[in-house]
Inverse folding.
């Protein structure tokens, strides 16, 4: 049987506002039937702290530290917690809620899409698997995360290796379309990451840092050989094609499409009202 063809975009390193605007634009175009489903790979220039749609900047984020580290800053259209985008491969998947392969529930759709990431880890020789909270207590704790840091705990169907989280993802559904994007960590600067958030006191910060080491890990901390960004791209490209049973067709944006993306970037993701609204 002929495989379904999805678009593939590797947009390289871009500004935080452009990255979020392109994901939004792809969602718009797919909802209008102008493009098929899309897998996108991207990076960040400058390295950036992105926060979830519902996070409160004033309460949770140390903006002085963000500026001190010369980081970009942006609020995502998806939920979840704060992510430092630095040494990583970022991906996004844009697909209709009505797609025959997409389950109706967020959790199950998340698992189907993440099958591509799971296979990508396997291509890198890492024994990744899906985290499934076993006890009622674990499930309840997912509803009330104590930390503003995304990689602090695996949630339903998050990907883990040796019991520690290796990829963090978030999802939104708008205009009948699923947008899921996330970080696949190659390396991680924990000191920098933990300097970006506010804590009740130093003791709490130290305790969270300590427990974080048991919960999250970067690929190059567990891989037998060092994985480059290009090797990661190759592995996850194959992983998505295999995991979703699709063919990927490279796509370049037209000048007109780029103009549309830049407008969204300027009007929303470079706008303080959006980024600091909560």
């Amino acid at each position: 049987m002929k495989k379904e063809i999805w678009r593939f975009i590797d947009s390289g390193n871009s500004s935080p506002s452009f990255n979020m605007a392109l994901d939004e634009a792809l969602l718009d175009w797919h909802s209008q039937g102008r493009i098929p489903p899309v897998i996108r790979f991207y990076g960040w220039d400058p390295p950036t702290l992105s926060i979830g749609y519902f996070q409160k900047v004033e309460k949770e984020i140390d903006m002085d530290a963000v500026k001190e580290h010369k980081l970009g800053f942006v609020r995502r259209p998806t939920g979840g917690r704060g992510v430092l985008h630095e040494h990583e491969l970022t991906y996004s998947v844009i697909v209709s809620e009505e797609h025959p392969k997409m389950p109706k529930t967020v959790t199950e759709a998340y698992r189907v899409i993440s099958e591509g990431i799971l296979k990508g880890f396997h291509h890198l020789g890492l024994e990744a698997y899906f985290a499934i909270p076993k006890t009622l207590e674990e499930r309840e704790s997912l509803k009330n995360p104590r930390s503003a840091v995304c990689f602090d705990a695996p949630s339903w169907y998050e990907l883990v290796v040796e019991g520690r989280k290796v990829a963090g993802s978030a999802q939104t559904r708008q205009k009948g379309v699923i947008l899921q994007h996330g970080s696949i960590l190659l390396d991680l600067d924990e000191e920098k990451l933990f300097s970006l958030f506010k804590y009740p006191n130093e003791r709490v910060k130290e305790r969270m840092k300590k427990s974080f080491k048991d919960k999250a890990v970067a690929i190059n901390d567990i891989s037998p050989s060092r994985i480059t960004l290009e090797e990661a791209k190759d592995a996850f490209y194959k992983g998505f094609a295999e995991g979703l049973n699709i063919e990927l067709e490279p796509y370049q944006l037209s000048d007109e499409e780029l103009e549309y993306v830049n407008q969204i970037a300027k009007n929303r993701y470079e706008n303080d009202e959006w980024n600091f609204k909560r």
